[in-house]
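Whiteboard transcription, Tuesday session. T.W. wrote the structure tokens on the left side:
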């Protein structure tokens, strides 16, 4: 068994995917494996089969389905998802991996800096408000003034970039694909809290990526998924404040 499995899905932009994969291979730690999940659209033009394990899924699989497929094939005690467009740097995994020495840590969010403006935070994990909004922690804050943000309690890493304890995710049966790619990370984090786990930010684990979209303007499908997550976890979060603030959160979307 590996200590760490790094999973990179190939979505629609092959150039972003290759930039991300190159950054991983250039900076990969020892004792890890790298998996690429694709929908049958990648022919391995650089002949990386000796460095990367390729996993093909069905053509119409969404992100949550692709990550679950990668998780089911991964051999690592810790699973690290990194989406195309996010760039790894030297030593980015070790500080996050070290946090898992605490048995109640289920997931660790790295700090993602904005690629175009690296003194600003793109994302440092996700928060979930009493009313049911999914909020990117620290988005837009100056990185050198974000200590309080990095210490803030988060509900989960985003699927964009996060480290997860394999056994914790396995206890849930993977990510709930009915919540979709936008909400399955929050749903997973809330479920892990019920089991007594914590999710934390690790400021010494740094990646770079695009400014983060918080999903505040939801279409009908994502709105239904947001409602599913809210009502599924309302009992564990407290009925009183949740019911008070939920109409405000809905009105803001």
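and on the right, the sequence the group agreed on:
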């Amino acid at each position: 068994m590996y200590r760490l499995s790094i999973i990179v899905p190939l979505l629609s932009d092959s150039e972003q995917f290759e930039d991300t994969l190159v950054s991983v291979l250039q900076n990969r730690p020892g004792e890890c494996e790298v998996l690429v999940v694709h929908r049958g659209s990648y022919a391995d033009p650089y002949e990386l089969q000796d460095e990367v394990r390729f996993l093909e899924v069905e053509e119409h699989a969404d992100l949550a389905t692709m990550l679950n497929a990668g998780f089911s094939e991964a051999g690592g005690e810790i699973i690290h998802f990194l989406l195309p467009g996010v760039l790894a740097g030297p030593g980015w995994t070790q500080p996050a991996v070290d946090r898992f020495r605490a048995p109640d840590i289920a997931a660790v969010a790295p700090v993602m800096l904005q690629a175009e403006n690296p003194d600003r935070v793109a994302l440092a994990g996700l928060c979930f408000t009493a009313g049911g909004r999914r909020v990117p922690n620290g988005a837009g804050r100056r990185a050198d003034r974000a200590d309080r943000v990095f210490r803030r309690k988060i509900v989960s890493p985003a699927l964009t970039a996060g480290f997860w304890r394999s056994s914790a995710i396995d206890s849930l049966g993977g990510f709930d694909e009915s919540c979709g790619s936008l909400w399955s990370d929050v749903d997973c984090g809330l479920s892990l809290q019920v089991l007594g786990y914590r999710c934390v930010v690790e400021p010494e684990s740094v990646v770079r990526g695009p400014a983060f979209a918080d999903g505040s303007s939801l279409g009908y499908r994502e709105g239904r998924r947001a409602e599913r997550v809210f009502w599924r976890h309302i009992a564990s979060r407290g009925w009183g404040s949740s019911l008070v603030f939920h109409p405000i959160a809905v009105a803001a979307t």
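Someone added at the bottom: The mean pLDDT is 89.
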